[in-house]
């Protein structure tokens, strides 16, 4: 499937691997794909994000992704749902980090021996890439671009979609920007 990726989409995938490596993550997650997309310039996805106000919220999106990783990958909606059941995720994170160190719930493997350096793609990241293929196919595009990865991230439940939606970036708004059908507005 990778041979069908454009240069920009390949850069997103390799950028995601780099984000995972820098963070010491066990696997490349969907969040790493979003971080790599946020790093891009001069591509279709970066254009769509810029039109939707990306310059104003890129740092807050990165921060929100880091906070979700610290919560063990729980989205803000999931943490709020648990709070409704009387479970304080913030308190759990604080206690775990008190004993095991900051970032202990993120699944990072920093400092562990025997790590080969190869990071597999998580089920979530693989799902995003398969969805990107489906989006491209549905649009009758011959190649998978970074815009298809962005659309796949917005159309899949989870932390990346929540972070983007909180900033007005939804499947519908990205589709409007990239393919027309009315004026796109963030938020």
From TrEMBL:
InterPro entries: Clp_N_dom_sf, Clp_R_N
The UniProt record lists the keyword Repeat: yes
Superkingdom field: Bacteria
Keywords, ordered alphabetically: Repeat
PROSITE patterns recorded: CLP_R
Residue stretches making up the Clp R domain: 2-187
Protein name: Peptidase
Organism: Streptomyces cyaneochromogenes
Organism classification: Bacteria, Bacillati, Actinomycetota, Actinomycetes, Kitasatosporales
């Amino acid at each position: 499937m990778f041979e069908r990726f454009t240069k920009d989409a390949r850069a997103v995938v390799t950028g995601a691997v780099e984000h995972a490596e820098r963070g010491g993550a066990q696997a490349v997650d969907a969040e790493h794909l979003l971080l790599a997309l946020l790093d891009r310039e001069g591509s279709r996805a970066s254009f769509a994000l810029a039109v939707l106000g990306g310059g104003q919220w890129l740092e807050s999106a990165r921060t929100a992704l880091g906070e979700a990783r610290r919560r063990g990958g729980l989205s803000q909606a999931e943490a709020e749902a648990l709070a409704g059941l009387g479970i304080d995720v913030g308190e759990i994170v604080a206690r775990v980090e008190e004993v095991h160190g900051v970032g202990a719930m993120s699944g990072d493997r920093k400092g562990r021996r025997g790590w080969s350096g190869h990071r597999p793609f998580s089920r979530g990241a693989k799902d995003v890439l398969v969805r990107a293929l489906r989006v491209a196919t549905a649009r009758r595009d011959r190649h998978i671009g970074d815009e298809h990865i962005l659309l796949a991230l917005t159309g899949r439940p989870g932390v990346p979609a929540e972070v983007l939606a909180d900033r007005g970036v939804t499947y519908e708004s990205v589709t409007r920007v990239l393919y027309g059908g009315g004026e796109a507005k963030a938020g």
